[in-house]
Amino acid sequence: MVEFYELVAAQIGVTDLAPLRPSGQKRVFLARRGSEQVVLKAVEILPPHQATVLERANREVGLLSRVAAKSDRRIVAVRSGLALVGDPATPTAVGWLEEYLDGNDLTDLLVSPWAQADALDLLSGLAEALKYLHDEEVVHRDLSPGNVRKRGDGLWTLLDPGLARHLSELSITGLYQPGTPGFRSPEQVPGGEPQPYSDIFGAGILVYLALTGHYPIDPRGAEDDYAKRLVEQQAPPVKTFRPDLDDDFAAVIDRCLSRQPARRYLDADELLDALRALGGSPATSLPRGTAP
Questions:
Q1: 152 Cβ partners below 8 Å, 6+ apart?
Q2: Residues 85-126: tens digit of each pLDDT
Q3: What pTM did the predictor assign?
Q4: Domain 4-99 has CATH 3.40.50.1000
């Protein structure tokens, strides 16, 4: 039996598929197109969700095409348009190509508590990448470790904006805002409305986890209990677990994680200003190329 992703690969013209880590509903493969290594993303389209899956795929490829070219390698670049399998009106699968990134996913680097300099580098890299999305009035909405990659040269790059939302467009997800448990903002509960400051909360989660090994808001247990904690519970100050951190840097992380949006940084630009005040431009003040 021919698998749906094999049909996508044939349609788009790639060979030598090697599975990579799954990404939600997508099957992800390292592949080859001529002499170029690329990443193939393929999604099977099953009823009754055809319209939603196709819309998300269109949105992800469109967003990458628009933003990645401007982002100085901080947003993964798309290498093809959408390839549809079957009737274009009711396709059975869809896929596209992205650039292959060397280096490591953040997931692989969260093995022990990080040094402050490495955590500052991560937060700075996230802020630089998010700036390109926020300048386009786009919220990523899924800043989980599998969607953040440290390239071989040390540059942090964002992946997989399939759940991203343009603020001028209606969300196709209705009242429920998606995201990965453990890495959601208080606005990602039923009836919530993520904004750029929601991505700031997500960046704060990643840095807090890297520094402490703890989630700022425990995601374990029932979904509704987790949602209630996100809205009502303030994360413990990061110095609870890392008293060695500089006060100013700890204050930046704690502000990112305020449960009240008005007390967070408004967007990536405001976060970058705060990081520069810690001592120089985040983009240039720290060495690259050393994994935590």
A1: 102, 103, 289
A2: 998 888 899 999 999 999 999 999 999 999 999 999 999 999
A3: 0.86
A4: no
Kindly list the domain boundaries of the chain, sorted by start residue. Answer: 4-99, 104-277
- Please give the C-alpha separations between residue 204 and each of 66, 76, 124, 142, 194, in angstroms, as whole numbers: 26, 21, 11, 13, 15
Fold of 104-277: Transferase(Phosphotransferase); domain 1 (1.10.510)
Report whether 30 contacts 37 (CB < 8 A). Answer: yes
Helix (H, G, I), strand (E, B) or coil at 15: strand
Residue 13's region, left for phi above 0, alpha for psi from -120 to 50, else beta, is left
Q: Which residue has the tokens 């989630």?
A: 215
Distance CA 197, CA 167 (A): 12
From edge to edge, which strands make up the β-sheet containing 156-158? Answer: 104-105, 148-150, 156-158
β-strand pairing of 83-85 with 36-44: unpaired
Letter for the amino acid at 197? Y
3-state secondary structure of 137: coil
Quick: pLDDT tens for 139-171: 888 899 999 999 999 999 998 765 556 554 544
Cα–Cα distance, 49 to 274 (Å, whole number): 42
Which residues make beta-bridge pairs with 94? 43, 84
Q: To which H or E segment does residue 16 belong?
A: strand 15-19
Show the tokens assigned to 74.
């901080």
